[in-house]
Design a protein that fits this description.
single chain; two-stranded antiparallel sheet; 5% strand
Length: 348
């Protein structure tokens, strides 16, 4: 797409003029240049002839060659540089070479890649909302408990209503996560199999990745800031005069943490979708094999945490303290993941 746009501009043609020369619509040229679609082989050959370049140049990444002299409107254009800044497929080729003896290669077309990226973009918001609801589920119960202390609501009614809302929020959040996981399950092969991308797909994915780079880092930064300032309500309760009590402080803290987790989940899902297609970071072929061996860990671990949290909360009625189970579980999970991963690798 970048090469077509660069060559068209060097020739001094508009998208409409290029479209007329090729017998296509201006919208088709626009889609080629934005990499939302790829011309068929006949149009690629026509483009190569029109621009005086080889089809190899149009198809391959990081291939530099001078453009032959081209006659346009009676004027000869010579020595036109055809180099374009298109990402290299070297990383993917290296990954395929490393994994060639372990797994078969799965071919991924542009349509598949775009469909996957769009599905993740839509699911990330709902998945993040589901996690937000689970983390923030005690807030209503704690708030009603504060109101009961000021006689705005009866204590029994406050507890009954609060627990009802808590369980409904957890159920809704869990349901959202399960539904979104089910929608994305058809793309599981992208995380498990070694991939080979159709020509031009890597450039499209990297361009989309770069477009979301700033937003991703902004979400992570805001999330980290929210996690840090979430301790402020507790400091106010301990060191300043707090007329609303610890329950209100914990409620504010949970809302801040839930908002941070929302940003983390949404931005990370989108960022990971690019890494999956490009087979980078933890999605390189060797990591895929290692993750496949411990795919059972995450669901077993977090379901156990939910069970421990609910049992501890109901048995002690200390909802203002049992929230710490989530914080401890979050800290311990990466350590447990590393230990289990190394143990599994050593036994295979």
């Amino acid at each position: 797409g970048e090469k077509i746009m660069s060559l068209r501009k060097r020739m001094g043609w508009s998208q409409e003029e290029l479209a007329q020369k090729l017998g296509v619509s201006r919208q088709s040229v626009s889609k080629w240049e934005s990499s939302t679609s790829i011309p068929d082989i006949q149009k690629i050959m026509a483009l190569a002839t029109l621009f005086g370049v080889s089809t190899d140049y149009l198809l391959r990444d990081e291939l530099e060659e001078p453009v032959a002299s081209v006659i346009s409107n009676g004027v000869e254009h010579e020595g036109i540089s055809a180099q374009a800044d298109v990402p290299s497929t070297r990383a993917v080729v290296d990954a395929l070479d490393m994994a060639s003896d372990t797994k078969p290669v799965r071919f991924v077309t542009l349509d598949e890649a775009q469909e996957f990226l769009e599905a993740v973009k839509q699911a990330s918001g709902l998945m993040a909302l589901g996690v937000f609801l689970c983390v923030a589920s005690p807030v209503v119960l704690l708030t009603l408990h504060v109101l009961s202390q000021f006689n705005y609501v009866d204590d029994i009614h406050a507890t009954t209503l609060g627990l009802t809302v808590l369980l409904c929020m957890v159920a809704a959040g869990t349901g959202l996560c399960i539904m979104q996981n089910a929608k994305l399950s058809r793309f599981e092969y992208l995380s498990k199999e070694v991939l080979s991308l159709q020509y031009g797909v890597e450039a499209v994915v990297r361009r989309k990745q770069e477009a979301t780079h700033t937003v991703h880092h902004m979400c992570i930064t805001i999330g980290v800031v929210l996690c840090i300032v979430s301790a402020i309500p507790l400091f106010w309760h301990v060191y300043m005069v707090d007329y609303l009590g610890v329950d209100f402080s914990v409620s504010v803290m949970l809302l801040l943490i839930a908002s941070a987790v929302f940003l983390f989940v949404k931005s990370t899902m989108v960022a990971n979708s690019f890494s999956k297609l490009l087979q980078e970071e933890e999605y390189n072929p060797h990591e895929k094999l290692a993750k496949a061996r411990i795919s059972w860990l995450a669901p077993v671990y977090w379901l156990s945490v939910v069970a421990v949290y609910l049992i501890a909360s109901f048995s002690t009625d200390a909802w203002n303290r049992t929230w710490a189970i989530w914080a401890v579980a979050g800290v311990l999970y990466p350590l447990i993941h590393i230990v289990v991963k190394k143990f599994t690798a050593s036994t295979t």
